Amino acid sequence: MAADRTPRFYFSLRSPYSWLAYRTLLDEYPDIAAAVEWRPFFEPDQLSEEMLTETGGSFPYTPMSRAKHLYVLQDVGRLAKARGLRLTWPVDRAPVWEVPHLAYLVALREGRGPEYIAAAYRARWEEGRDICDPAVVADIATGIGIDARAAAGAADDPELRREGLRLLHDIDRDGVFGVPFFVHGYSRFWGLDRLGDFVGHLRQRTAPAGRLPEPVGAAVGLGPRSVDDGHAGGCG
């Protein structure tokens, strides 16, 4: 079977490296930001994990060591400072990552996907807010003009849970083990430090005449366990 040629960016509202990749895409590579399909990546809670297992899928993760955690704190601080970005570290209390990521699907349905991601990243990484709190999600939704009740209750919506399950299967099929993660055909690029390589690859493969294709998706568009964050450019 031929590989899907749709260029995809797997982003996570949880990950600081994903936040930095988001900012870099918009600030330095707006043509790429408009051309890729944005797909949310989130660690499944118990319900989602059970649904995923029952339907033959799996989700890769490894526990994050204390040493890695401390390194990420230091490294992200350096990277944000070098980019002139304000960083406020959030504190996650019993997070359920379906809460903010399935709310993105509500925003996408209402044509406000990019605005939601911008507001959610700002709330988490610049204001230090708990975006797994439905009240915070409702506030974000109100601010961008979408249904606050639907967004705040997205994790309790069976239809959105099923859509989230499809996204988890996409993550599994694409071999996504951390974020930010970029996919085009058979090519995979993991981490903030591979973003430039992905940009060069995509421009070379899809725009030999100097023009990127029209956007294929709405350009916009983790708790006690973490996907592997084995190098500084990518984590869960």
From TrEMBL:
Its EC number is 5.99.1.4. GO terms for molecular function: 2-hydroxychromene-2-carboxylate isomerase activity; oxidoreductase activity. Gene3D superfamilies: Glutaredoxin (3.40.30.10). This is 2-hydroxychromene-2-carboxylate isomerase. The keyword Transcription does not apply. It catalyses: 2-hydroxychromene-2-carboxylate = (3E)-4-(2-hydroxyphenyl)-2-oxobut-3-enoate. Residues 9-202 form the DSBA-like thioredoxin domain. The keyword Lipid metabolism does not apply. Belongs to the GST superfamily. NadH family. The active site is at 15 (nucleophile). InterPro entries: DSBA-like_thioredoxin_dom, GST_Kappa/NadH, HCCAis_GSTk, Thioredoxin-like_sf. Pfam families: DSBA (PF01323). Keywords: Isomerase.
